Amino acid sequence: MSVTIKDVARAAQVSVATVSRTLNGHGNVAEEVRRRVLAVAQDLRYTPHAAARSLSSRRTHTLGVVLPDLHGEFFSELVRGVDQVAREHRLHLLVSSYHGRPEEQAAALRAMRGRVDGLLVMSPYVAAQAPIVDELDAAMPIVLINTQSAVPGLLSLSVDNYGGARAMVEHLVDCGHRRIAFIAGPEDNFDAHERLRGYREALARLLPDASEWVLPGQFDEASGHRAGQALLAAPQRPDAVFAANDMMALGCLFSFVQAGLKVPDDIAVAGFDDIPLARYVHPTLTTMRVNIAELGARAARLLLTQLGTEAAAQEQQPSMDEPRQSEPLRPELIVRESGVRRGGGG
Fold first, then answer.
1. Contacts (Cβ under 8 Å, ≥6 apart) of 290
2. Which residues does 168 contact at the CB level (< 8 Å), separation at least 6?
3. What is the per-residue pLDDT for 45?
4. Which CDD domains match (predicted)?
5. Which of 10, 198, 331, 336 is an S-S bond match for 288, by CB 3.0 to 4.6 Å?
C-alpha cells in the first residue's frame, strides 16, 4: 500500500497539518520539526497525491504553455527557459500547440481550463488575438508573448522585432552591401510584420535610391531554400540576403552552397533569432540574437508574480512593476562569417 500523509505524521509525531505546511514550504514550522518531517517523508518515500493536493489547495501546481507550434529550435529553447523557472518552484508544465492555425487556438485554450494555475500564451498571429479574450477565465493569471498589441488587463512580453531588423540592415549597409533582399515570414504573423517593417524603414532611410526586394517565406527551412533558388534565377543577384528568421536563412544558405556560391564573398546571408544551430553551420550565421530561453524564463517569472507565490515575489525584478506592458527584449547583433563582405567590417 502507498504511504499517506497520515503515516508521515504518525512517524514524525506531529499533526497532519504540520506535515502539510512543511511539505508545501510554509514558514510557520519550527526548524527542528521541519527537518524531522522531511527526513521521515524521505525515509518512507512519501510522494504527495497530486489530485488530493489540488483539491485541498485549489492549485494544480502546473503552468500551461500554449504555443503556435512545437517544431523547431525556437520553440524548444522557449520551453527550456520556461521549464527552468518551473522546476525551480517545483511546478510542472502542460504544453499545447495550435499548429500554426490561429483558428485552433481557442480549442487549445479551452483544453487548459481547470488543469493549470496560470497560462503563458504565445500569440503572434493577428487573427488569434480575439480568441484569447473570449476563451480565458477572467480569474486565470496569464502572460502573453509577442502579441500584436496589449490586451486590457493582461500582462504581455515582447521582442523588439522592428528595432532588431533595422539594426541588421544598418550592419549590412555598413559592410558595403547595396542590394539587400529580404525573406519575409507569414503575412498574418506579427513578428514577421514587424521585421519586414524594420527592413523597409532602414532601407528607405539608408539607401533611398535602392528598391526593396521582398520574397515570401513561412519561417521554415523549405521556404528559405525556395527563396534562395528564386534569387539564384534572378537576372541580377543581391549583395546580401536578410531572412526574417534563422531557419529561413539556413535554408537559403544551403541553396547558395548547392549552387557553388561562396558566402559571404559572392553573397552575404543573415538571419534573426540566433537559434543554437546558427553558430554550428558553415559559414557561421550572422544574426540578431534573441535570448530565447531567457524570453521564456522571464515570461514564467512574470506569471509567477501574478500567482503570488512567496518565491516569485522574492524574484520580482523592478521592470516587472510596470503596469501591464513589460519592456521589450532588445535583440543583439551577432556578427559571424556569413554576413561580412570580404574586406568589410561591422
1. 159, 164, 272, 273, 274, 329, 331
2. 198, 199, 242, 270, 272, 288, 333
3. 85
4. HTH_LacI (cd01392), PBP1_LacI_sugar_binding-like (cd06267)
5. 331
Smallest CA-to-CA distance from 215 within 233, 227, 203 is with 227
What pLDDT does 147 receive? 79
Percentage with pLDDT > 70 across the chain: 83
Q: Would you say the C-alpha torsion 282, 263, 162, 193 has a positive or negative sign?
A: negative
Look at the block and give the residue holding cell 564573398.
Answer: 265
Q: Is the dihedral of CA 143, 146, 150, 151 positive or negative?
A: negative
Q: Give the tens place of pLDDT for each residue, 232-261.
A: 999 999 999 999 999 999 999 999 999 999
Provide the 3-class DSSP secondary structure of residue 94: strand
Comparing 101 with 246, the larger pLDDT belongs to: 246
Q: What does each C-alpha distance from 10 to 49, 254, 300 come to in angstroms? A: 18, 66, 38
Q: In the chain, count of helices (H) and strands (E)?
A: 13, 11
Q: Are 206 and 173 in contact (CB under 8 A)?
A: yes
CA nearest to 164, candidates 12, 286, 4? 286
Percent of the chain with pLDDT over 90: 56
Q: Tell me if 37 sits within 8 A of 19, measured CB to CB.
A: yes
Query: What's the rounded Cα separation, in Å, for the pair 243 and 182?
Result: 6
Q: What is the pTM of this model?
A: 0.75
* Dist CA 91 CA 160 (whole Å): 29
